């Protein structure tokens, strides 16, 4: 793995760690000033490092982030998968991170897709080949 890719993976892991620690200033320092974050499932976009961090800082308290995977992509972005426990709810987020292309990379963009863990719908009961995990939301545990 190249040094640049390693730095970018460290930025993503550092962002999730800063969010978990509620270190909002530390989180903001990882973003380019004009960064953008798009939450595709709700149709929202936050523009600017301050706006991105503020929306996360004001999210109702009681949540815990578990990093499951952080992987480099061929196009230079980094993909992360996290589980967010916010009892009684549990969510997964797939996030694609883009970076500034300079000597001191910062997060320039995030494209996120969030999903809430829910029970399967009844109409799928009885389908051949269908299996159910006893605890589907724990099937993906942090590495």
Polypeptide structure, described:
The chain is of the alpha+beta class and 143 residues long. The protein has a single domain (3-118, 134-138), classed as Roll (Nuclear Transport Factor 2, Chain: A). It contains three helices and six strands, in the order ααββαββββ. It has a six-stranded mixed beta sheet with strand order 2-1-6-5-4-3, with helices on one face. β1 and β2 form a beta hairpin. The longest helix is centred in the N-terminal third of the chain and has 19 residues, at 3-21. The radius of gyration is 17 Å and the shape is globular.
Q: How many discrete structural domains?
A: 1
Strands, total number: 6
Report the top-level CATH class: Alpha Beta
Q: How many distinct helices?
A: 3
Kindly state the percentage of residues in helix. 10-25%
Quote the beta fraction.
35-45%
**CA-to-CA gap between the ends?**
19 Å
What is the string of SSEs from the N terminus onward?
HHEEHEEEE
> What profile does the largest beta sheet have?
6 strands, mixed
CATH fold-type name: Nuclear Transport Factor 2, Chain: A
What is the second-level CATH architecture? Roll
Instruction: Round the Cα radius of gyration to an integer and report it.
Output: 17 Å
What is the averaged pLDDT score?
Answer: 90
Question: What is the strand and helix layout of this fold?
Answer:
Blueprint: H1 3-21, H2 24-28, E1 31-39, E2 44-47, H3 49-57, E3 64-72, E4 78-86, E5 89-99, E6 107-116
Parallel strand pairs: 1-6
Antiparallel strand pairs: 1-2, 3-4, 4-5, 5-6
């Amino acid at each position: 793995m190249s040094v640049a890719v390693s730095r970018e993976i460290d930025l993503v892991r550092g962002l999730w760690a800063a969010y978990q620690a509620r270190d909002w200033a530390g989180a903001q320092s990882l973003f380019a000033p004009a960064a953008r974050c798009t939450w595709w499932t709700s149709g929202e976009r936050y523009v600017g490092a301050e706006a991105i961090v503020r929306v996360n800082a004001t999210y109702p308290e009681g949540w815990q982030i578990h990093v499951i995977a952080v992987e480099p992509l061929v196009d230079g972005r980094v993909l992360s998968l996290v589980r967010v426990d916010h009892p009684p709810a549990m969510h997964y987020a797939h996030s694609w991170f883009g970076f500034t292309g300079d000597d001191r990379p910062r997060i320039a963009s995030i494209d996120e897709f969030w999903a809430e863990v829910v029970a399967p719908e009844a109409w799928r009961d009885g389908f051949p080949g269908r299996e159910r995990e006893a605890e589907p939301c724990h099937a993906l545990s942090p590495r």
